[in-house]
């Protein structure tokens, strides 16, 4: 039982580390970042600074995902 709990806590630490690399969309929505319903309801009147924030969030997410994918693909053993 203690071995399973130890492995579980080790995996939890690794997963928390990965979660700090990914954007936190829940906190971002509280500051009005991802909540664009009011803009869609009034037409396509989206401010450029909000569009820039979304673009930077997407770029950051893409960079983290691309780095992780590169690492996993680079360490994969390819049989000849």
Architecture overview:
This protein has 80 residues and is an all-alpha fold. The protein is built from 4 helices and no strands. The longest helix is centred in the C-terminal third of the chain and has 27 residues.
> Strand pairing plus helix content: what structural class?
mainly alpha
Largest sheet: none
Radius of gyration: 19 Å
Summarize the helix and strand pattern as letters.
HHHH
User: Total domains, how many?
Assistant: 1
Q: How would you classify the quaternary structure?
A: single chain
- Average pLDDT rating: 77
Task: Quote the beta fraction.
Answer: under 5%
Amount of helix: over 70%
Shape: elongated
What is the rounded distance between the termini? 41 Å
Q: How many DSSP E strands?
A: 0
| Low-confidence regions | none
Number of helices: 4
Descriptive keywords:
mainly alpha, 4 helices, 80 residues
Summarize this structure briefly:
The chain has about 80 residues and is an all-alpha fold.
Helices, strands, pairings?
Elements: H1 2-21, H2 25-30, H3 37-41, H4 48-74
């Amino acid at each position: 039982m203690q071995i399973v709990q130890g492995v579980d806590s080790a995996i939890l630490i690794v997963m928390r580390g990965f979660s700090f690399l990914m954007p936190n969309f829940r906190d971002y929505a509280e500051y009005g970042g991802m909540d664009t319903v009011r803009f869609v309801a009034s037409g396509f009147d989206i401010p450029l600074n909000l569009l820039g924030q979304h673009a930077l969030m997407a770029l950051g997410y893409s960079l983290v995902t691309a780095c992780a994918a590169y690492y996993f693909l680079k360490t994969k053993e390819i049989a000849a």
